[in-house]
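To: structure desk
From: M.T.
Subject: fold request, one chain
Message: Could you run this one when you get a chance? Sequence is below, nothing fancy, just the single chain.
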Amino acid sequence: MRRLAVAALIFVAGCAPASPTGPHPAPCPAGASAMVRDVLYFGRSVPGGGMVSDAEWTRFLAEVITPAFPEGFTVTSGTGQWQEAGGNVVSEPSMIFSVLHPDTQEEEAKVTGIGERYRVAFRQEAVLHEHLIVCMDLIDGKN
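Reply: Done. Structure tokens follow.
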């Protein structure tokens, strides 16, 4: 997972042009706002055997993720594959959390805090964190 995380970060860092204060995308089109899109990938296999159950995931979602981002987020399920520190390639069920938020240290700390709480609670080697600057617009019929 760590190798995948580093590769993803290198790829993402290479996607935006550099500026004196860091990578910034081209300006957003009219009506859109620059936001951060953070994605966390939660493996459900527990080291030593077992799985994070549906009930455990639902409780984590209700007690940790929802209070941090009550405005909204998306969670999808998937299957992930990565190489453990010991070299074994593992395929496992995963949950993928995605949220859009303003580019502030407070919001970013909430995302990394969620990843760390999951890592510790379910004895994970790592939680992959994807961080992108995106342009956001609502298609809500009010324009």
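Reply (cont.): The radius of gyration is 17 Å. Let me know if you need anything else for the meeting.
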